[in-house]
Write a structure and sequence with these properties.
CATH topology: Rossmann fold
Radius of gyration: 18 Å
Low-confidence stretches: none
Distance between the termini: 38 Å
Bound molecules: nicotinamide-adenine-dinucleotide
Largest sheet: 7 strands, parallel
Strand content: 5-15%
Mean pLDDT: 97
CATH architecture: 3-Layer(aba) Sandwich
Number of domains: 1
Length: about 250
């Protein structure tokens, strides 16, 4: 497929993990991709993407961007693992800044310049829908869903769509610290997923490209969960309520 031939795309956080895979797929389908990251060198080397060294939380730097991409993917984020009672104000602010303020700044600068037919895809998380830990990150991801709906209403009349993809566990470098403490973590987590595995960056990228493409021409303001069924229900709870054999 070459759904993005002749189109331009900007992916924040495209230097690693999910963002790198999104940039890879957009590029493979014909888009001229710019990767905005604290370190965009991997994407530039591997994909020939245009590197843009950018901190999406830096209001002055984002406001100075002179770009008008057809596709904007707000993917950059960080997440602190500090438990709630010890969470500092600085850590709270840092998660809110990368997860929520960054997309706000990017959209405020770029949306007014985007051509009709343009599309924004924000990368959220299942953490916005239910509690899975990481209080500041989760609150910020919930805020990002709200921002997505607001921007969809605001920019719909200009022919610009704004949607959000909400992944559950995806093996990327964001998990490195947790995995170094607990190497069996991913294998254990797989047991919570109705589809029997955790996700891959490719699972997320496929959903992002669909929402960014003309195939999704009448979809805006929506959240698409890419979560292997995690938020559809809780099989372990059902087994406790009824019997383990009930889920046949
Ligand atoms: N991996 C998961 O399990 C998972 C699950 C749900 C949602 N997500 C979301 O997917 C997105 C990508 O996560 P990932 O797992 O690929 O993480 P990652 O750590 O592999 O990649 C994140 C990238 O964002 C960049 N980045 C961080 N802060 C930035 C800033 N202020 N300005 C510019 N670039 C910045 C980093 O340099 C890095 O290249 C995030 O929004 C994350 O919240 C991930």
């Amino acid at each position: 497929m070459s759904r993005f031939q002749g189109r331009t795309a900007l992916v924040t956080g495209g230097g690693s993990g999910i963002g790198l895979e999104i940039a890879r797929r957009l590029s493979a389908e014909g888009a001229a991709v710019t990767v905005a990251d604290l370190d965009p060198s991997a994407a530039a080397r591997e994909l020939g993407a245009t590197p843009l060294e950018l901190d999406v939380t830096d209001e002055r730097a984002v406001s100075a961007l002179d770009l008008a991409p057809d596709v904007l993917v707000n993917n950059a984020a960080t997440c602190t693992d500090t438990p709630f009672p010890e969470l500092s104000g600085e850590e709270w602010d840092a998660d809110l800044a990368s997860v929520l303020k960054g997309p706000f700044l990017m959209c405020r600068t770029l949306l007014p310049r985007m051509p009709a037919g343009g599309s924004v895809v924000n990368i959220g998380s299942v953490n916005a829908a239910a509690f899975f830990g990481n209080d500041a990150y989760s609150a910020a991801k919930a805020g990002l869903e709200s921002l997505t709906r607001g921007l969809a209403v605001r920019y719909g009349p200009r022919g610009i769509r704004v949607n959000l993809v909400a992944p559950a566990t995806i093996r990327t470098p964001i998990w490195d610290a947790r995995l170094s403490r607990d190497p069996e973590l991913m294998a254990r987590l797989a047991g919570w997923y109705p589809l029997g595995r955790i996700g891959s960056p490719a699972d997320v990228a496929a959903a992002v490209l669909f929402l960014a493409s003309p195939e999704a021409a009448w979809i805006t303001g929506t959240t698409l969960r890419v979560d292997g069924g995690l938020t559809a229900g809780n099989a372990r709870l059902v087994a406790d309520i009824l019997t383990p054999g009930h889920l046949r």
